[in-house]
Structures are given as structure tokens and as C-alpha cells.
């Protein structure tokens, strides 16, 4: 089994090492640019959702909860898990207040 190498590099040594790998800098800039682009796109989409549509969903959830009925929320992949976990958690929090 290989032992992990212990490094005690100073900030100056770390910067020196990073400047040696300056070839990677353009790749890091592309990553940052892609993150900013993604966040801009998400912001644009969210701003186009009418508040009245969100309010309608909230009203339907409250009505279903008050009548002890079920609402099924579906999604693909991660969104399905988020919908399930988020809905259950929120109902439990409200119920215990």
C-alpha cells in the first residue's frame, strides 16, 4: 500500500507550482465562463415564470393537504428525487408547527 505524500508547501511555492501549469489556465477560464452562462440561463428562465402560475401550484398543494388528498409530482432523474423529498419534508415541517 502506498503512503500518501505529505506536503508542506508555502503559498509562494504553491503559486510557483501553479504558474508552471499555466497551460491549464485557459481550461479553468472556460469552466468559469460555462458556469456563468448556465447561471444566466437559469436566471432568464426563472424570470419568465409567471408568479400567478407558481401561486396556482401552491394553492393546489394547500388544498390537497387540507383535504388529506394526494398530488403526484413526477420528473426525470434528479428532479423526481427532489420533488419527492422536497414535498415530503415541507409537509412534515408544516404539520409539526
Helix content: over 70%
Which percent range describes the beta-strand content? Answer: under 5%
Contiguous uncertain segments of 5+ residues: none
Determine the structural class based on helices, strands and strand pairing. mainly alpha
| Morphology | elongated
Count of helical stretches: 4
Oligomer: single chain
Number of strands: 0
* Biggest beta sheet attributes: none
Residue-averaged pLDDT: 75
SSE order, one letter for each helix or strand: HHHH
Q: Give the C-alpha Rg.
A: 24 Å
State the end-to-end CA separation. 53 Å
Question: How does this structure look, described?
Answer:
- The structure is a single chain.
- This protein is mainly alpha-helical and about 100 residues long.
- Helix content is about 70%, strand content about 0%.
- It contains 4 helices and no strands.
- It has helices spanning about 10-20, 25-50, 50-65, 80-95.
- The protein is elongated, with a radius of gyration of 24 Å.
Summarize this structure as a short list of keywords or feature phrases:
97 residues, 4 helices, mainly alpha
Amino acid at each position: 500500500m502506498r503512503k500518501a505524500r505529505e506536503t508542506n508547501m508555502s503559498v509562494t511555492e504553491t503559486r510557483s507550482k501553479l504558474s508552471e501549469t499555466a497551460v491549464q489556465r485557459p481550461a479553468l477560464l472556460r469552466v468559469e465562463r460555462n458556469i456563468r452562462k448556465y447561471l444566466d440561463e437559469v436566471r432568464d428562465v426563472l424570470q419568465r415564470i409567471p408568479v400567478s402560475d407558481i401561486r396556482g401550484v401552491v394553492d393546489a398543494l394547500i388544498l390537497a393537504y387540507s383535504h388529506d388528498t394526494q398530488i403526484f409530482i413526477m420528473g426525470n432523474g434528479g428532479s423526481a428525487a427532489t420533488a419527492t423529498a422536497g414535498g415530503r419534508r415541507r409537509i412534515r415541517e408544516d404539520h409539526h408547527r
